[in-house]
Structures are given as C-alpha cells and as structure tokens.
Amino acid sequence: MIIVLEPGITDAEYNHVLEVIEGMGFQVHVSKGVRRTIVGVIGEEDRLRIQPLSAIRGVERVIPVLTPFKLASREFQEEDSVIECGGVKIGGKNVAVIAGPCAVENREMLLEVARRVKKAGASMLRGGAYKPRTSPYSFRGLGKEGLEYLREAGDELNMPVVTEVMDARQVEEVEKYADVLQVGARNMQNFNLLDEVGQRGKPVLLKRGMSASVKELVMSAEYILSNGNARVILCERGIKTFEDSTRNTLDLSAVPNVRQISHLPVIVDPSHATGRAGLVPAMSLAAVAAGASGVMVEVHPSPERALSDGEQSITPDVFDGMMQQLRTIVAAMERELQSGRPGNQEDGG
Ligand code: PEP
Ligand code: MN
Question: With bands split at pLDDT 50, 70 and 90, how would you rate the model's confidence at 348?
Fold first, then answer.
C-alpha cells in the first residue's frame, strides 16, 4: 500500500500519520520526492486492505501497489535511485564502468589491471576473492588475501571496489574490505544472505540468477530493501536459453523492463552474459544505449593464462578502445560517465 501525503502537510500531521500506521503494527518506509512525500506501508495484505488509511489527517490518497514488490517499485518512488558507492554514483544520468579480473589471482596482476582500467576511465574495480565455481577442483579464489590485495589496489588507485560475498557468514569479513558487496547469480535467491546484506549499510550489487525472471530479480532486491538497506544495484548477466554459441543469452530487454517497474539502477555484465571476449565491447555499448546505469566487465592482462573466465576476459588494450567508443554513446545519450574519484597515481603503471 502506498500513501500519498498532502503537499502542505505540517510536521505534526506527518508525525501523526506515521504514529497511527505504526501503531496498527505496520512497517513504514518514507520516500521524500521533490514534489511529494510517499509512505510505503508494509504488512499483511488482508489486514491492510480493510484499514481506512485514507481517513488519517494529512493523507491525500491511498494507492494499492499491484506488483508483489513494494519498496523497489516505481509506484513507491518515481525518481531513479542514485546509489553512492564510495564516491561513485550509480543510477540516474550516471554511467559507471566496473572493470577488473574475474578473480584476484595475485597482487601484481591485480595492481596492473587496476592501473590500466583506471587510466582508461573505469569508475570502480572488481575482482573475486571468494569464487563460486561449477567444479570444486577449480580455482576458488584467494579468500582473505585476495580481499587485502583488492583493498590495497582500490586505495592506491582511489577506486571503490566490488567483490562477491557467497555466504551470510562471510558478510562481516568481506564488508571490511569492499565498498560494494556483490551477490552472485547463484545466490540471487539465497534469502538468508539477502537478509544479512540488507541489515548492513554497504551497497549491494545483486546479479540476476541464470534462470530467474526479471520479477524474481526485483523480488530479491525487495528482501534487501525491506531489511532497511535501500542501496541496491541490479545486474543483468545473461540467462540460460537453448542458444549454445554463447555462455548465456544477454537479455538486454531486462534493462528497460526493470526500469519501467523499478527505480533501482540496473547495470549489465556482458562478460558472463556472452562468455566470449569478442562480444563484450559491442554488448557494453548496447547496454548503455538501452539505458543501463553502467557495465561490469572482466579484464585480464593475459586472458590465456587466467585462472578463471579467460575466454570472456578482454585485455586492457581492448578495454581502452571500448571506453573510447563508450564515451560517444554516453554523450549521444546526454548522460555522464562516472570516471570516479581522481586517481592518486593516475598515470601510474
Ligand atoms: C562474477 O561476477 O564473477 C560472477 C561469478 O558472476 P555471476 O554470479 O553472474 O556468474
Ligand atoms: Mn567471472
């Protein structure tokens, strides 16, 4: 249920509205827009329907939310959410580029990639320290050591860092190092993990499950939002289809699709979506043209030697060329590339 408050509502009336609703045992989430203040009321649907909330002084309208997600819906918040991630803005007119290796393999390689992508204009650094792998015998990441290298590279280059957290028990450790917590495709419906990251303050990059619908993706975001953390970035990373010439099928329509139903920013990961380095630049440009708030791409100095996802990793040189083309698209769309905070060693490396 959404309650639209009267434009000229006084502070006393506003407090009274919240008191009454909370007194009924419902949860309230306030969204203060430029023109209007909207109160999202969450509670048992049956009980909500019979409460005459429109009778409360200061309430202009009561609108039932038709979608199963509430706080993540466009109805609840008309304006795009802009998520601040360690100095970089994701959402609205901004376009952010997150780049880095699939996995943090060692200190030197990470620093090399970080310097190169920073120089090319990346906004944020990625790298997995805890890797979800199909085979338990594959490289599963450096763990805490990887997190330390990631933080060091982020600090040296003055770039916020994003890394995956695979389990609710890992959140406390990972959040000490990361600016953004990534919940991977395989964990999109790990509801305990969603609850845990929702109770923490760090922004969350939530990736679409490979067999999940757009609606299910937004429902998972709702878990995080309903726990009090409004800083959620969605990520389309390809879904399973019958097509077998690509690793997954990039559902580019998910971008405008999500944007119609939700105010949350959505970015695209063309690396996991296609599984082929040769397709990554074109799909990155297409993603931004489709209205994505950014892209996340895997970059490796020698993909043929990568310990994971080498086939889909682009080289720093290819990344450089891609960034130049991306600037043209960003300008044509009258958007702004978030090149991040000024680097400590911008021409380093
Ligand atoms: C990743 O980004 O490294 C990753 C494992 O992605 P996904 O969860 O989308 O497979
Ligand atoms: Mn990967």
Answer: very low
